[in-house]
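Here is the promised in-class demo. Please do not try to memorize the tokens; focus on the logic of going from shape to residues.
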């Protein structure tokens, strides 16, 4: 009686390995050498229990898929909202000091005028900049983008 093959005997495609994901994240976060990131579909893993060998003839390899560049998929993220926060400085105050604040009160911060301000995206420090005036409004000019290991 011939053996019936079931769907569980078919090799299942696997997702990217942890190393592949780490490489993509390294390049996206600025750790790469500037070359585009290429994402390819990985080769399917051998079927379980066969030791890598198949009882049937191997199917011909699927046709070569065109390479997909990460940049082609970034536009999906362009509409995602992020929270940007600029930190001029910090101070510690007691409740009594806070309650005494009123119109015209001056709160001293731990930085001097001209010191760089911290730029946070979603509560993560990503850059430093300087306060400027643009069209009559305060603005921040980015002076330094922190390396991923400094964040």
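The designed amino acids, position by position:
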């Amino acid at each position: 009686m011939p053996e019936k093959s079931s769907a569980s005997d078919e090799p299942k495609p696997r997702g990217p390995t942890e190393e592949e994901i780490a490489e993509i994240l390294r390049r996206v976060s600025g750790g790469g050498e500037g070359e585009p990131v290429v994402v390819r579909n990985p080769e399917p893993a051998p079927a379980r229990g066969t030791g890598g060998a198949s009882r049937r003839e191997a199917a011909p390899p699927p046709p070569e898929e065109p390479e997909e560049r990460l940049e082609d998929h970034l536009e999906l993220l362009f509409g995602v909202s992020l929270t940007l926060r600029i930190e001029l400085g910090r101070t510690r105050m007691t409740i009594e000091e806070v309650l005494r604040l009123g119109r015209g009160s001056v709160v001293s911060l731990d930085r001097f005028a001209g010191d760089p301000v911290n730029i946070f995206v979603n509560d993560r420090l990503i850059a430093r900049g300087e306060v400027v005036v643009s069209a009559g409004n305060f603005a921040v000019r980015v002076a330094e983008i922190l390396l991923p290991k400094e964040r």
